[in-house]
Amino acid sequence: MAFSIERRQQDIKALKEGTLDVFIIGGGITGAGTALQASASGLKTGLVEMQDFAEGTSSRSTKLVHGGLRYLKNFDVEVVADTVQERAVVQGIAPHIPKADPMILPIYDEPGSTFSMFSLKIAMDLYDRLADVTGTKYANYTLTKEEVLKREPQLRSDGLLGAGVYLDYRNNDARLVIENIKRAATDGGHMVSQMKVVGILHDADDKVSGATVEDLLTGETFDIKARVVLNTTGPWSDTIRQMDTKVDAAPQMRPTKGVHLVVDNKRLSVPQPTYFDTGKNDGRMVFVIPREEKTYFGTTDTDYTGDFANPTVEQEDVDYLLEIVNNRYPSAKITIDDIEASWAGLRPLISANGGLDYNGAKNQPISDESFDKVINTIKQYQKGNVDRYTVEEALKNIEKDNSESEANPSAISRGSALDIDPDGLITVAGGKITDYRKMALGAMKAVIEILQNNFNLSYELIDSAKYPVSGGEIDPQEVEAETGKLAQMGIEKGLNESEALYLANLYGSNTPKVLALLDEIQQIEGLTLADSVSLCYAMKEEMALTPSDFLIRRTNHMLFMRDTLDSIIEPVITEMARYYGWTEEAKINYRKGLETAVAESDLKNLKGDGKK
C-alpha cells in the first residue's frame, strides 16, 4: 500500500496488535536510516515521530553532506577519512539527493585564521587522497587573490591571500529522511508520524518492553510492545531516557542552536559554496551557499536550553551573521529587511568532549603548539632536512587540548554515542547527517545481538552501503544523464523543461510514478502543473499530513521559493482539506500553523509588523 493516510491507519492497527522486534523512537535521519536497515533485514519494525518526519534537527542543517576539511587542521585524519568515505556511500544509495558542488575557501591574513595558504594546500591534498579524487575533475586547486576576486568580486580584498577549492556536496536533508522512511515502509516497516511517546513499558523483569504512545491526530493513547526499544530522538535523547523509570540516566546532551538566513542572489551573489573564517577570531567558520536563485548563509553555534520543538532565530543571531557576511562582502550591505527566509535548528551534541563515537574514536582538538610543530616538521621534510619517520613521529605525538570544550560549543565533539541502559533501552545520539547510515548500522548490530542472545531470533543484516533509498535506483555515476532522461519524460507529459528537471531532481527514480499521476489528476487552480502533481504525490505517497509538511519538508517552497509562496498557500490548503476531508475548524488550525511557521521564517517579529 502507498505511504498514505490509509497506510497510517493500517500501521497503527499493526502496532497495537503485534510485538515488534525493534521499536524506534524518533523519525529524524538516524531513526529513518535505522528503520530502513531493520525493515530490509526482515525485522518486525516500528517507528514513531511526534512531529512530521525530519521536522526537528534533520530538516534544519546547513544542507550539505560535508566532508569535514576543517578537521584536518587538527590532523583528525581518521575522522575525515571516515566522513568522506561515508559521504561517497550516501551518494551511492541516494544519488538523486547529494550533488557534487565544489567549495571555495578564501584565506585572509588575520588573527585566528584556521588555515594559511600553505596549511590549506596540505589539508586539501590529504583530503583528496582520503576522498579518492586525486587526479579527477574534483581534485583540489588553489586560486590567487586576483583569481578569487574575479570569481567572487563582492569578496573583501583587504588581507585576502588567495583560496583553495575542494570537493563538497550539497544536500536536501528532509528529502534524505523521507526517502529512507519510504523505503522502510515499502519493506514492511510501520512508520507513523504525529505519534508521541508518553511512557516506557517494562516486563516482569524490569526490562524495556515497549512504550505508551499518544496519537496526536486523534488523541488516542495505546501501548506498543517490542523486544528492543531504540531511542534516536536527537536533542530529546535525555528526555526519553529520563522517562524510563527503571534507570537513573545522567544527562549527556548539550544541544547547540544553528541559524541560517536566506537572501535573494541579486543582493548577495556567489558562484559556488563558500566557506571562511568569521574574521572575529572566535574559532568559527561560516558558509555562504547559492541555491535556487537564492543565497543562504550560516551557521551560528550557541548553547541552547529553550523549547527543543521550536528553536527560533533571535536578534543576536541575525546581528552576528550579518556582521560577518557584510565584513566579507562589504558592498552587499545586507540588512534584516533583505532576509527572505530563515531557519533555526539544534545540533544534538554529546556534552563529554572526547566521548566515544560509533567507531569508538575520540575527537579532541590539538594544541596550537602541537599544530605548529607538525607544520614546521612538514616544511623541513619538504626541504629535505628531515626524513619521513620524523614526520610520522610528530603526528603520533600530537598533544590534545581540552581547554576549549567547556566555554566554546563549537569545540564539543561531533562524534556519536551508542549507550545501552541496564534495562535494555538503546540510545544513539550525536553525530552528523553524513554519518547517519553508519550510526544506524552500529545500532542495528546491537539490536540483532540482543535479539539473538535474549530471544533466540536470528537476522542477517543487509549490506546497507549498497541498498538504495526510495528514489535512489539510478546509476550514481550517471546522475546527470539519468536525471535528464527522467526530465524528458516530464516534458513529454506536458511540463516545461524547468518543471520537469525540478521534479526529476526531487524524486529521482520515483519520477515516473509521480508523472503517472498526471493522467489521473486535474491541474489544481492556483498551482502549476508541477506543483499540482507534487502535492498529490506528497499526500498519496509521502505522508504529508499538513500544509507545512508539504511546503517546508517535502519541498523547499518556504525556504528557497519565497517569491511564489504566498500565492500557493491557499490552493495547497484548499486541496489538502478536500483530499483529507478536514472540518472547517481543522482547516483553520492548519492554516494558523503554517502562518506561524512562515512568520517565524520571515522574521516578522524582528522586522516589525509593517514589514514582511
From TrEMBL:
Its EC number is 1.1.3.21. GO terms for biological process: glycerol metabolic process; glycerol-3-phosphate catabolic process. One of its GO terms (molecular function) is glycerol-3-phosphate dehydrogenase (quinone) activity. Gene3D superfamilies: Alpha-glycerophosphate oxidase, cap domain, D-Amino Acid Oxidase, subunit A, domain 2, FAD/NAD(P)-binding domain. The keyword Oxidoreductase applies. InterPro entries: DAO_C, DAO_C_sf, FAD-dep_OxRdtase, FAD/NAD-bd_sf, G3P_DH_FAD-dep. Residues 21-353 form the FAD dependent oxidoreductase domain. Residues 465-586 form the Alpha-glycerophosphate oxidase C-terminal domain. The keyword Amino-acid biosynthesis does not apply. Coiled coil: none annotated. It catalyses: sn-glycerol 3-phosphate + O2 = dihydroxyacetone phosphate + H2O2. Its cofactor is FAD. Keywords: FAD, Flavoprotein, Glycerol metabolism, Oxidoreductase. It is an enzyme of class 1 (oxidoreductase). It holds the Pfam family DAO. PANTHER family: ANAEROBIC GLYCEROL-3-PHOSPHATE DEHYDROGENASE SUBUNIT A, GLYCEROL-3-PHOSPHATE DEHYDROGENASE. Belongs to the FAD-dependent glycerol-3-phosphate dehydrogenase family. This is Alpha-glycerophosphate oxidase.
